[in-house]
Amino acid sequence: MTNETLNKTTEYLKSKGFNSPQIGIVLGTGLGQLVNHLQIEAEVNYIDIPNFPVSTVEFHSGKLLFGTLENKKVIIMQGRFHLYEGYTLQEITFPVRVMKALGITTLLVSNAAGAINLNYKKGDLMLLDDHINLQGGSPLAFKNVSEFGERFTDMCAPYDANLNEKMQQIAKENNITLHKGVYAAVVGPQLETRAEYRYLKIIGADAVGMSTVPEVIVANHLNLPVIAVSVLTDECNPDDLKPVNIPEIIAVAGEAEPKMITLFKEIVKR
Q1: What does CATH list as the number for 3-269?
Q2: Long-range contacts of 254-257 (CB under 8 A, 24+ apart)
Q3: Which letter, b or e, does each residue of 18-52 get, where b requires 16 or more Cβ atoms within 10 Å of its Cβ?
Q4: Residue 24 to residue 7: CA distance in whole angstroms
Q5: pLDDT value for 109
Q6: 221: helix, coil or strand?
Q7: Which of 214, 215, 246 is nearest to 233 (CA)?
Q8: Rounded distance between C-alpha atoms, residue 105 and residue 86, angstroms
Q9: What's the angle, vertex CA 55, arms to CA 122 and CA 97, rounded to 5?
Q10: Are 157 and 131 in contact (CB under 8 A)?
Q11: Matching Gene3D superfamilies, A to Z (predicted)?
């Protein structure tokens, strides 16, 4: 990655009306409805954005949206990129660098995840307090990374404590169950074995998914305050494991989505 590629992409988006955004939002699996609350001022398909990862079939609807949400200018990524689709960690996180270059000062991330902590139930939400990177690489492991920020990025507090506190307060005010826990990021796309679920529990994970951590690492590299929330779509009990049902996972995410929208709208407002 070079400054030239980054500049070319940001200039293109500015020419399309993406001007002075304050907040960037990455929407995870089954969580696309927040865009219905956005007063859209500009939108571009990923496939048309220079240097953006080329959309796979699954992400043909992948769009970058710009507009007003709760009186703030926001950019929303409707659809994200995953390691399991064959992208590199640098490609997956390129949109975060672009949003920062356009001017965002805060990043909000959502995802769908499996509950490792069996006190958490499907349909619940979990605020990420920390994470474990099991994706076998880093989005900062490239030659000229120091041109974009500190190579040895500190990760002692990857998620912004102030934002997390606000989010917990919002959940409390709205009677939304919001657990706080550790998210483990794996490559996928296969789901975990019983032994893997046991391993994840032993190493301290409360939930497992296939995204988010690369974006969060890059946000920290850019000194960009970040907050992330998981919708827990299934319960990963190795002693009672049933074959995974992807339509059911999408349905659970859809049912939990109004709670996520409430949290995100309120945090944007504040």
Answers
A1: 3.40.50.1580
A2: 254/30, 254/33, 255/123, 256/123, 256/124, 256/125, 256/231, 256/232, 257/30, 257/31, 257/33, 257/231
A3: beebebbbbbbbbbbebbeebeeebbbebeebebb
A4: 18
A5: 97
A6: helix
A7: 246
A8: 29
A9: 80
A10: no
A11: Nucleoside phosphorylase domain
**123 burial class (0-12, 13-18, 19+ CB within 10 angstroms)?**
middle
Tell me which residue of 248, 208, 213, 196 sits closest to 120, measured CA to CA: 208
238-263: b or e for each residue (b if 16 or more CB lie within 10 Å)?
A: beeeeeeeeeebeebbeebbebbbeb
CA neighbor of 217 nearest in space, from 228, 208, 209 = 228
Domain boundaries, the chain: 3-269
Are 229 and 263 spatial neighbours (Cβ–Cβ below 8 Å)? yes
The most distant pair of C-alpha atoms in the chain lies apart, rounded to whole Å, by 55
Task: Write out the two tokens for 165.
Answer: 């506190």
Write out pLDDT tens, residues 98-152.
999 999 999 999 999 999 999 999 999 999 999 999 999 999 999 999 999 999 9
Whether the bond between 238 and the residue before it is cis, its omega within 30 degrees of 0, is no
CA distances from 47 to 12, 80, 182, 219 (A): 13, 13, 33, 23
Measure the CA angle with vertex 95, ends 104 and 106; round to 5°: 25
What was the pLDDT predicted at 246? Answer: 83
Q: What is the pLDDT of residue 237?
A: 94
From first CA to last CA, the distance across the chain in angstroms is 34
As a whole number, the mean pLDDT across the chain is: 94
Q: Tell me which amino acid residue 246 is.
A: I
From CA 96, how far away is CA 91, in angstroms rounded?
A: 10
Backbone angles phi, psi at 150, to 5 degrees: -65, 120
